[in-house]
Amino acid sequence: MEDITTQFEECLRRHLRSAKPNPINYDVELVQLGLDSMTAVAVLLDMEKTFGIRFPDDMLVEGTFRTAGRLKEAVQKLREVQAS
Amino acid sequence: MTRPLPDQSLGPEWTVLELLARGIIDDGERQMTRDLLLSETLDWGELLEQALRHKMLPMLGDHVISAGLRFDVPTTIYQHLESTLEWNRAQIEVFRRETVRVAQALGAHNIHFVVTKGMTFESTLYRGLGTRHMNDVDFMIAPRDRDTVMSVMQTLGFRPFFDWAKDPRREEISSRLNRDHLPKLAREIDQPGTRKINIDIANSLTWTKSPFDVPVEEALANPVEQPVPGMFGVSLPCFRPTYQFLFTVLHLFREAWLQKFVDFGTDVGLMKFGDVLRLIDQNHDELTNGELLRITEIHNVIHPVAWVLRHLDETFQMRTQKLFALERYGDEELLASQMQSGAYVRASRQSMRERLQSKTRGAARPVEPAH
């Protein structure tokens, strides 16, 4: 699968103010980058549109997007599943 | 409680709606409403638009009809108000039957629940006259019962429904993430005038990640049984007055502060402030015996409750904050400091009355009025 890092980070930066000027730390909780209940929805929706995926109901939980690393992992997994 | 007549600074149309929202209880208020409706300066277009925005058309219709204004109101407007009231009454009947059907199914599965909001208010605060508008039927359950209740609702023919939103997928994601409610549920029915029944099932008195909350299990304990009008021997469990009041006030607080309600155009409404005032009027003794104050202190919801009452007082020129001895609470800055994310509306100098009347709801909440 192609590397999604650039598109993924662009997507995060569109919604998270604190992520804009800095390199994204994949281990920091997204809440610390400005994620709240409204931006969480916006980020997930944008990820779905950007990567042509759909988060199943069981992935629409906080654990999926606690950190950028967890979210990227989830996006990659869905891309792989939906491509196969 | 003293009830001064409303000041008319926002125009005769708005004054009529304020009088109707708080409930007309004496001859002075009745006469004032009549005079305003018959005044030459009254703009019926403005009155109808604001009544519609605040879901008060059936209430206006009922008043115009019961006040005997048949030949004083433009004929087409009178006819429209009459049919709006009749339609509302018919829809309430449909909703009542469905509420009982759902309640019996939940009861059969030993689910602890209460019916809330419009359905309970209509037959109590609004005397079952069919004047309280409602979009859906609301229930409250405990979080532990979410899965069972969803399963029961699906057995009854209800399905998650997101098409009401401008962006259904956004709403679907939001409802899965914010687990203070089940996803909105709908069932299509073959009923003239009402094609679909929406049911909203909450499992929190506030919202996900709210800094304020009252435990649902505590609120659900010892519900009161409320008779269902027109259905002999049938009753529905409802919050007892203390928790009914708390939920209603906290719900109003939620709608006033969360940005998403402003975006949907479903934030604060005059009728909902009227609900609070009517609850106080009808349950005065139980609400002022000290228990409410104790619960708000224990659960640290005293500031949100006082904030709503402060704006209620400003809107209707009442003194409910004093009645509940909450004048020292409801601090705007303290509340704002606890709710700083972009999910909450920002402050403005607009008063609650002005926000309610405004047709271009800004993304801002009013700060507390200066007294």
Structure in words:
The complex is a heterodimer of chains A (84) and B (371). Chain A is globular, with a radius of gyration of 12 Å. With 84 residues, chain A is an all-alpha fold. Chain A has three helices and no strands. Chain A starts with a helix and ends with a helix. Chain A has a single domain (5-83), classed as ACP-like (Non-ribosomal Peptide Synthetase Peptidyl Carrier Protein, Chain A, Orthogonal Bundle). The model of chain A has no long low-confidence stretch (mean pLDDT 91). Chain B has 18 helices and nine strands. Chain B has helices at residues 12-22, 27-38, 44-53, 57-66, 75-108, 118-124, 146-155, 168-177, 216-220, 241-257, 259-264, 270-282, 284-287, 291-298, 302-316, 320-323, 332-338, 352-357, and strands spanning 113-116, 137-141, 159-160, 185-191, 194-202, 224-227, 235-238, 346-348, 364-366. Chain B is globular, with a radius of gyration of 20 Å.
Produce the secondary structure layout.
The complex is a heterodimer of chains A (84) and B (371).
Chain A: H1 5-15, H2 37-51, H3 68-83
Helix pairs in contact in A: 1-2
Chain B: H1 12-22, H2 27-38, H3 44-53, H4 57-66, H5 75-108, E1 113-116, H6 118-124, E2 137-141, H7 146-155, E3 159-160, H8 168-177, E4 185-191, E5 194-202, H9 216-220, E6 224-227, E7 235-238, H10 241-257, H11 259-264, H12 270-282, H13 284-287, H14 291-298, H15 302-316, H16 320-323, H17 332-338, E8 346-348, H18 352-357, E9 364-366
Parallel strand pairs in B: 2-5, 8-9
Antiparallel strand pairs in B: 1-2, 3-4, 4-5, 6-7
Helix pairs in contact in B: 1-2, 1-3, 1-12, 4-5, 10-12, 10-15
